[in-house]
Amino acid sequence: MKTGPNYRYQLVGAKPRRRTSANLFDGTLQKTQIWLNDIMAELDWEDKPEKAYFALRTVLHALRDRLTVEEAVQLGAQLPMLVRGFYYEGWTLKHKPHKERHKEEFLAHIKDAFKGDVTVRPESIARAVFRVLELHTSDGEIAEVKNLLPKALHELWPKRRKLSA
Fold it and tell me: What number of other Cβ atoms are within 10 A of residue 46's Cβ?
């Protein structure tokens, strides 16, 4: 079958918009920035995004490692794509979930991650990250996560859920 030439017409003066890889990730970058800003505000760490990132990553890893595989995956599905990437970073299923039952063991994981930083208060970091999780994930998912955790860790979560819009 013979076909004619294929012409592409362009409006005069209009430049075609090229879609770059940066455009593909704008949404997740914005959502992640919101999460980090919320953590910086909670901890009074203005202008310390690296520290906020490290706090989010550390608490998410500690939480993930105390959940069942199924629940860890369900929580991961609610995270922004960029956060989800570092949530799963280094995850192995061997010896999971951790059977630690005490708040002090959970907080020790955070303290160890921030080794040498005497300004870090692990309990404040855990509370701040849990508040941000409550703010940006579904009520049902948070309830399921909390139900799997020992009672001693429940006191680190905010007392009140976010208001539904």
Answer: 10
Which domains, from first to last, does the chain contain? 21-154 (1.10.490.110)
- CA of residue 121 relative to chain centroid, distance: 20
Using an 8 Å Cβ cutoff, are 131 and 158 in contact? Answer: yes
Show contacts of 100-109: CB within 8 Å, 24+ apart: 100/66, 100/150, 101/150, 101/152, 102/150, 102/152, 103/152, 103/153, 103/155, 103/156, 106/62, 106/66, 106/153, 106/156, 109/58, 109/61, 109/62
Q: How far is CA 78 from CA 37, 75, 82, 85, 92, in A?
A: 18, 5, 11, 12, 20
Global confidence as pTM: 0.82
Q: Which two tokens stand for residue 70?
A: 């199924």
What pLDDT is attached to residue 8? 53
